[in-house]
Amino acid sequence: MSEHSANPSSATAATGRSRAVKAVIPAAGLATRFLPATKAVPKELLPVVDRPVLQYIVEEATQAGIGDVLLITGRGKTSMVDHFDRRPDLEARLEAKGDTERLAAVRGPSELAEIYTCRQPEQLGLGHAVGYAESHVGDQPFAVLLGDEFVKPAEPLLPAMLELQARTGGVVLAFFEVDPAETKRYGIASVEPAEAELTDIGEVVRVTGMVEKPTPEDAPSNLAVLGRYVLPSSIFDAIRRTKPGSGGEIQLTDAMELLRGEGTPVHAIVYRGTRYDTGMPLGYLQTVVQIAAERDDLGTEFRTWLAEFVKTDASGVTGT
Ligand code: UTP
């Protein structure tokens, strides 16, 4: 097990509610924005330097004190689960060679958390995928981490979300600010200030509505939904009552809106940290470059090369 930096038991003496201790990672999507790479390889396994995206996401959960992770997978995506299994044959070979560094790297993922898995048989939307977590999660609140997005480990978001959910008992989301001209790419929220709430990582707002991909003229704000949610178990019943919405899919947003309309409080943290979006090629490239540039082992060499590349080849001035 990895070292947990957060303390779940500190949660909520005041409210008597406990902090979520399970996470669900819906990763059954078809990843059409990254074809053809994702025809045979799940986008969650694309490498960011030398670790798959999914490992960063599971690490984010464990750093927030979560030790139980359910991966929702689909056809052709079971290799994601293998990444968190042991590889005795490989381990024996590395051990025999005395390669302790690589041995630790191979064992690391299997020691992060208890990993469980279930399959979404048809890709009928994020809400539909989350619905498959019901029997694993039971009647407790839980976190949802989308499988193609993560935040900088030094600027964690999830602990503050878990804490806030334990206080409110409702739905807790996270937002990030986007260029107002780009609202069409995101789910956008309308918000009002929450009663005197502030976290280390960003201000807390009360959510009064959500719109999928509005034009800049129709957008109620420039706050876009980030792929982290902490949800009460009442979301499962709401998902069952949610009809297919945009794209014919059962949308998590619609199920959350149903709960909000029935009086469940919905809050969000406006995250001011660094978010990496690996769901399509440009964001993926930016992520790889940023993480590589910050790595202790290869950052210096990589930055030197990158600066030189940008100065020469990339501008086409002295390209070969
Ligand atoms: P996306 O909207 O990013 O869809 O889903 P996608 O299929 O992954 O990628 P594109 O848009 O076709 O390129 C958001 C999250 O919800 C999961 C995805 O795996 C992703 O983590 N998801 C989506 C499911 O698990 N099942 C679904 O039916 C839909």
Shape: globular
Mean pLDDT: 91
CATH topology: Spore Coat Polysaccharide Biosynthesis Protein SpsA, Chain A
Strand content of the residues, in percent?
15-25%
Total strand segments = 13
User: With helices defined by DSSP (H or I, 4 residues minimum), what is the helix count?
Assistant: 11
CATH homologous superfamily label: Spore Coat Polysaccharide Biosynthesis Protein SpsA, Chain A
Architecture per CATH nomenclature, i.e. the level-2 architecture: Alpha-Beta Complex
CATH class: Alpha Beta
Strand order, sheet with most strands:
5-4-1-6-11-8-12-10-9
Largest sheet: 9 strands, mixed
Distance between the termini: 49 Å
Walk me through what this model shows.
The protein is an alpha/beta fold and 320 residues long. The protein has one domain (10-278): Spore Coat Polysaccharide Biosynthesis Protein SpsA, Chain A (Alpha-Beta Complex), CATH 3.90.550.10. It is built from eleven helices and 13 strands. It has a nine-stranded mixed β-sheet with strand order 5-4-1-6-11-8-12-10-9. It has a two-stranded antiparallel sheet with strand order 2-3. Strands 7-13 form a two-stranded antiparallel ribbon. A hairpin with a 4-residue loop joins strand 9 and strand 10. It is globular. The chain starts with 21 loop residues before the first strand and ends in a 9-residue tail after the last helix. The relative contact order is 0.15. The model is unreliable at 1-13 (pLDDT under 50). Bound molecules: uridine 5'-triphosphate. Uridine 5'-triphosphate binds at residues 26-34, 72, 120, 123-126, 128-129, 146-148, 279.
